[in-house]
Each structure stands twice: as C-alpha cells, then as structure tokens.
Amino acid sequence: MRRTLFRIAAILLGLMPVLTAELALRWFDWPPPPAVDPYVDLHKLRPLFEPVPGDPDRLHIGQQRLHLFRPASFSRQKPPGTFRIFALGGSTTQGEPYSTETAFPRWAGEALQLADPGRHYEVINCGGLSYASYRVFAILREVLQYDPDLIMLYTGHNEFLEKRTYEESASGGWRRCVSSTFEELRIVRLARTWMHRAEDHGDRPEKSRTVLQAEVDALLDYQGGLEQYHRGDRWRDGVVEHFEWNLQQMVRACRNADVPLVLIKPVSNLADCPPMKIEIDPSLPSAQRRRFEDLWETARTATSPSVAQRAAAAALEIDPQHAGAHFLLGRLAYEAGQADPALVHLTMARDYDVCPLRAPTPILQATQRVAAASHCSWVDAEQLFASRSDLEIVGNRWLVDHIHPKIEGHQLLGREIAAACIRDGIVIATQADWMERVEPAFQQVLAALDESYFQRAQQRLEGLLLWTQGRAKKIRGATASPSTP
User: Fold this and answer.
1) Taking Cα atoms as reference points, which of 346, 339, 361 lies closest to residue 312?
2) Domain 286-351 falls under CATH 3.40.1180.10
3) What is the mean pLDDT of residues 86-113?
4) What is the rounded CA–CA span in Å between residue 92 and residue 86?
5) Do 156 and 133 touch, CB atoms closer than 8 A?
6) Are strands 55-61 and 49-52 parallel, antiparallel or unpaired?
7) Comparing C-alpha atoms, which of 95, 91, 83, 169 is closest to residue 120?
C-alpha cells in the first residue's frame, strides 16, 4: 500500500510543472493560440477578404477568388443596429446550382428581418465550391475578426474531394475523447503551435502533413479524376477523424469569441441518386468474382422485380459492400412502398459509394456528436427534408442533384434556421406573426430575379452533373481555371 502511494505521489510530483504552467496561463488569462491543424499543412492558404480598391473601409472577396466564391462585401466597421451573419460551407451554402441570391443564408436573413425589423440583418455568404471543413475552418478564423453576431455552418459533403495522406491511427471513441480533452489544455495547444511552427520553418519530420495548395485542388477537377477513387481507400478513417477535429475547433473558436453558431447537418439524395462509382471487392477469389458478376448482370437486366431482388440479394451475400447492389435493392423496396428496407439499402449505397460526394454516415454522426457535446444551435437538414418526402427518404422532390436543394428547399432550410435562432435565444422576435409573413416576402425576392438567373443555374447544373461523372477537361499540370461549375 505504501509503495502504491509513493508511486502516485511521484507521478503527481512529476506533473506539478505542467499543472503549474497550465494554471499560470489561465490565471493571467493568456489567450490560447489558434489551433494548428495536426493533419494537414495550411500555410499556403490566403485570406478570403481584402480591402476594396479605393475604399479601405470596406472588405470584399477579391476578383481572383470568384471562380469558387460569389461576390460579397461589407464595412470593416459594423454599422450600429446591424446584426452581422457569416454563412460558411461549400457549394450548398453558396446556393449551387443557383447562387447566393436564393441560398438558405439569404432566406434565413430575410426571415430574421421579418421577426426583428428593428435591426438590419446583414448576411455575408462565404460558401466556396468544393470547400471542405479544413478550408472552411481557415475562413472561420478570419471572419471572427470582423465582429460577427452569428455563424451559420453547413459542411460535410466535400471531405473526400482533395487527396490527403493520413498516418495510420487507431481511431475510435476513446481516442476522440482523449484528444478533445487534451485540446482544452492551453499548454498543449501552445506546445503544438511551437512544434508546427518549427515544421513550417523546414524542420519537418519524415512523415509530415500533406501540404494543401492555396486553392481547392479537387481530384474531379481533372481528366481521369474519377479513376483516382478506389474501394477500400485507407484514408477514409483519417478523413472522418480530421473532419470531426475541424468541427470541434470551429465550435471552440466561436465559443472563445462569444459568437453563436448554428451547425447544420447536411442532406443528400438517397432515393434518386445512384452511386457515383461502384467496384467489386478486389479481394474476392476469381470464382466468387465470376459468380458475383453473373448475379449482378441478372439483377441489372431482369424485367421481373422479384428476380432482380433475389439476384441482388444473392450478390450482396458475396460482396456485402457493393454500392450498386444496395442501390438496386433500395430502389426496388422504395418502388414497392417498403420504407424500412429502402432506407437501409439506399443509405448503404451512399455510404459504400467508391466516390463519396455525399456525406456518408460517419461524417453525419461526427456532426451530431460535436453538436451534442457543444450544445450549439442545431438544425437537422436531413430530417427536415426527409419528414416532407415520400417514405421519409429524400430524393428529387427536394434536391436538384446528389446534394443541392431546390430553391424551395433552400427556403425551407432558411426558415428552419431562423426558427432555431429564435428558439435558442440568439435573436429575440419582436413580431409574433413573422412566420405568416415569410412566404409573401420570399415571393417578392424571387419576383425580382430575371429569367437569366434561372437559365444560368440550369447551365451550371448540367456542368455539375458532368463533373460528378468525372468528365472534367482540365489536365493536371496545365494552367487553367477549375472545371467545377
């Protein structure tokens, strides 16, 4: 017993310098340094906003960034009576295939203006095409300097667009918990900052972080991009872990800045979007592979639903993670009105997609975990659309493609975000009937848009569909603008 107590005392004595340093940093209210991404090197990234030429009191998105962003500007000094909102994320935040004029941040701002007309609700849309969470985090850190009153965050679909390398790690709940706990220690964050600064000055270890380019370098932006995706890619676990870390840091940054955050769970098309790419399990023995191919051919070509169902089910017994077979079974169940099996198989078709352009279940679960742990405002776009869809499975009724809502979907989401802000006390509604006046106000906004706005959206949608099919024309190494629409 005495020996055990002695060992405990020795451990505590060894920890005393660390505990003393931590207490000192907190006692003197030393501000924690911004978290350094331990997964990728972001030193090439540039600020999104810059002074307007000839008007240094205003900031805007520079011309060189408008191939991925839409124009936005604001006064460096926030005017009195203004409630400033920054909306962050990828193409859905931007309103693709339309634009920011009909994106959910615009509709949320319009709804909040109706609820609280005594203030001016200023919405600055920072949605960037193909922007993943690690790039969004960099923008968040920037915009927190510009006196925001609210951050809207919709991210998760773009995590697999850029190739990164992650060291193998035993990912799991315990590891996430321990990592998150230690991130709260200021001395740990200070040590990490010093370590990564040393790396950025050339003292990099052999296994260094992936250095990201200044702008998005998506695999699908190039010819043959779809061929770069393969089943069983070992980087997927690292992607999910990195995504959750980014969300945690964004929540923490908003909390430290005392800025409310609305986190939105992304929605995707399950019912009407087949997998972007399917592959047979490469580890199957040749005999099983031939058997699978025979069954798969039967399932795809059968005119009888029952024959197709039996063949696809038998194929899945050989290859349980074949996205195509899951989608076929899901569609058969959906068309038969069988909600439960349809949802199971269509979800698996998304999750096992070899080219994951829709946020898979692990990404969605990470979003929910972070929201639950942080108690931030939360909007579940997936459930919002599902509750208004046939069999409660989201499809073309609300989305124009694999992930992007129709304009009425953006309006629905905008109303829900506004309601969440009021529910959680971020905004005090002074007009009790604001919800009844939303629809006429939305119609006025739409009426002010000319026909060319919708024609451009149709052209962009056609280009976007080609992009998802891996039909980009850009050649890696050549100088050209990104082929994403």
Assistant:
1) 346
2) no
3) 98
4) 14
5) yes
6) antiparallel
7) 83
Identify each DSSP E strand in 105-209 by its residue range. Answer: 120-125, 150-154
Cβ atoms 356, 303 nearer than 8 A: no
Tell me phi and psi for residue 121, to 5 degrees. -95, 110
How many whole angstroms separate alpha carbon 330 and alpha carbon 376?
34
Greater confidence (485 vs 236) lies with: 236
How many secondary structure helices (H) and strands (E) does the chain include?
16, 10
> How far, in Å, CA of 471 to CA of 485, rounded?
12
3-state secondary structure 405-472: ECHHHHHHHHHHHHHHHHHCCCCCCCCCCHHHHHHHHHHHHHHCCCHHHHHHHHHHHHHHHHHHCCCC
CA distance 311 to 315: 6
DSSP state, residue 35: P
Q: Which two tokens stand for residue 159?
A: 């995590």
- 245 by Cβ neighbours in 10 Å (0-12 / 13-18 / 19+) ranks as buried
Name the amino acid, one letter, at 101. E
Q: 416: closest CA among 390, 448, 380, 449? A: 380
Cα pseudo-dihedral 454, 459, 464, 467, rounded to 10: -170
Closest CA to 123 of 98, 97, 103: 103
Give the predicted TM-score (pTM) of the model.
0.86
pLDDT tens per residue across span 138-184: 999 999 999 999 999 999 999 999 988 776 544 444 444 445 555 55
293: left (phi over 0), alpha (psi -120 to 50) or beta: alpha
- What tokens appear for 143 in the block? 């915009």
Indicate the domain borders of the chain: 23-273+358-485, 286-351
Which is the CATH superfamily of the domain at 23-273+358-485? SGNH hydrolase (3.40.50.1110)
Of 99, 78, 76, nearest to 87 (Cα)? 99
d(CA 316, CA 291): 11
